[in-house]
Every structure is written in structure tokens, then in C-alpha cells.
């Protein structure tokens, strides 16, 4: 080991840190995962949607609470759009604690070491590796590693400590878990409007026996309101309040998301992953699938490079290049999201929903819509639906230059 205690130290034992730890250990690296909390998966900040593509990579089907095949989407004035096909599974809803624990367990089973209650407080780049000082249960421990990976979430210590760049867009969310909501089996619900979810959407997601009710907002559009205010507006909205009247809260939490990065996801011998790298989807806020995608793209090359101790800036740049494609795709998705949702006022949203509700548009959404890849649907809507063609003029330039 030539003086290295580990080949890789991963900061953060969330789903992405766990999945990364598993891939790197399985590739033959000596991996240490640091988690600042004393327990995995707590506190959790997630609506629990995990796409089949992500689920199949970790095979944690026992964490699934229910499945979703469709959605009922509401415009600000109550135009309803029903999409989906009961025969086509769109996403799973999981218990995030079980899911996160499963991802980290797989890393341990393939050889990784997990330190709970531990966080880095200092890291120095040396000629042949990194020297990392870790605060572990009140004591400081110094370790040497070839590579340091930050999978430490939206407010990543690693990203900030190494000044790796700024997050392009933050979104804030608030979610309440309730019993007593009369939902429709297999379908989630989405609500829009300036009073409820400025710039984005609110949701009701079934999770087996109960429901998760949440709101997303762009912070700059909150205008002095809190996410809790938006939630109150949703559950007391004259159009929908009857649906919420018998609900009882069993849990609540707040959190934020990072979409897109200005800057690099690598520096010296440091690489950031998942939320730390701003990889959440701007359309849904989903971060697990893009985080896993990033691990799949980079891990095999990082294994080879670490075993050879060839982690020069030039080599890391080459290894990290494929992530640029994901970033560009998210940027295109953001432009389309802004065109159809975020930059629209409530009247414009109502007009758009009236078009969405037409049977030929619903068919198009069902045929092309994909929670993982929203860009093809956005482009088809702009091309095929005459009323949206005027948007296409604005969109084309933005999409080309985005
Ligand atoms: C309200 C809300 C709803 C969401 N819903 C969904 C959804 O339905 N589907 C979806 O795919 N995504 C969703 N997301 C996003 C999703 O939660 C994240 O994208 C996902 O958790 C990212 O995983 P991660 O491993 O990168 O980061 P995290 O899950 O944030 O894990 C990071 C880990 O690092 C630890 N950590 C942080 N700093 C340190 C440190 N300095 N030292 C040691 N440990 C540290 C943390 O304790 C944590 O365990 C939602 C987010 C929010 C806020």
C-alpha cells in the first residue's frame, strides 16, 4: 500500500456513497466510507421514488412500498390531466431508510469499511495521495488515501472545502407523511400554481398504507413565504381541500436539492458524486438515478486509475468527461421545464393544461413520456402540437445554446 491506509475514502453513506463504495470495493479497492450520523438513512429527505432502472442495479426490491404507473396532474384552476397505463410501471416508491441501508450493506459485503459518527475536518493534497483528518467520536484520526470521493449530499463539505464550484440551481422542498388521504391506487398526483408551488409542483405520492404530500419551490419565487405556507395553501385550496380534510400527519421534513454545477466535479485527487455534484434532475428533483448513472460511468475507470495510482488532473478530466453529457441533458430538460412550467403564470399554465388534457396529447405523453428522459417528450410536444409551436421559436435557440 506504500503508506496509504485506504485506496479511497468516500465522504457520505447515502445511496450514492453506498453504491459507489460497492462498485469500487468490488473492483478491488480498499474503501472507507465516512458517515457523520450514527445511523444510515436518517434523517431522510425524499419522496421515495426510485426508477426501475436504479432499482435493478441494486436489486433492493424488498424496500419497495408500492408501485406507480400513472399520474393525475392539476392546473392552478383545476384542469385535470390523467396520464399513464396500468400495464406500464413508471416508478417504485421505497422506504428510503431500507433502501439506503441496503446500498451501504452491499458496499460492506464487497469489502468496504464503514465509520459511523465520522466526518472529515481537513484534507491536504500530497504528491502521491491525500492526507485526511477525520473527527471520529470526539477524536481526530489522520489517514492517507489515494483518492477522496465526496458523496456528501446537497451541502457537500467536499465541494465547499475544495472550492469546486457553485450549484447552478437550488430547489427547496417540504414534505409531510399523512394517513387518511383517499388517493387512487397506482397513481401519484401533482398540483401547480403560484400559491402552491411557484415555478415547480406539489405532489401526493402513495407509499403503501399512507401518502407523502410535498411541495417544491424555487427559493427566489417564495417572496417571503415558507414552504409550510405553500403546503397550507395546498391542503386548504378551495378546489382540493375535501381530499385533505381527513388526513393526519405522521411525519414532516424539509430539504433542498442541487441541480447543475458551475465548475468541475474533480480537483486534484478529489471527485464529487450525486447531490454533491448537483446531479438532481431539474424536472422531478430525482437524484438517485443520475447519481447511480454517474457511478456507473466513472467507477470502472477510477478503479483502474487508482490501482495504477494514475490520478493526475489530466487523467481525472478524461475519466469525468462523460458526466458532461448528463449535465448538458439536464440543462436541456431545465430549458423545457422553464418553457412549459417554471416561467409560466397561472393563466398560461391553465392554457397549457387544457392542451395537455386533449386525448391526442395524452396519447403522446403516454407514448413518449419517460420520468428518466423528459427531453424527447418536450421536443415532440413543441414539434407536434400546433399551439406549442410558438414556444418552439424561443426554445430552439435556448436548446441549441443551452
Ligand atoms: C423533499 C425531497 C424529496 C425528494 N424526492 C426524491 C425522489 O422521490 N426520488 C429521488 O431519486 N430523489 C429525491 N430527492 C433527492 C434525493 O433525496 C437525493 O438526490 C439523494 O438522496 C442523493 O443521494 P446522495 O447519496 O448523493 O446524497 P444524500 O442522500 O444526501 O446522502 C449524503 C450522505 O452524506 C452524509 N454526510 C453529509 N455531509 C457529511 C460529512 N461532512 N461527513 C460525513 N458524512 C456526511 C449525510 O449524512 C448523508 O447520509 C428528494 C429530495 C428532497 C429534499
CATH H-level homologous superfamily name of the largest domain: FAD/NAD(P)-binding domain
SS-based class: alpha/beta
CATH architecture verdict of the largest domain: 3-Layer(bba) Sandwich
Largest sheet: 8 strands, mixed
Percent of residues in helices? 25-40%
- Predict the CATH topology of the largest domain: FAD/NAD(P)-binding domain
**Top CATH class of the largest domain:** Alpha Beta
Shape: globular
Runs in which pLDDT lies below 50 for 5 or more consecutive residues are none
Mean pLDDT: 92
Report strand %: 25-35%
Continuous helix count = 13
| Ligands and ions found | flavin-adenine dinucleotide
User: What is the alpha-carbon Rg in Å?
Assistant: 22 Å
User: Span from first to last CA?
Assistant: 45 Å
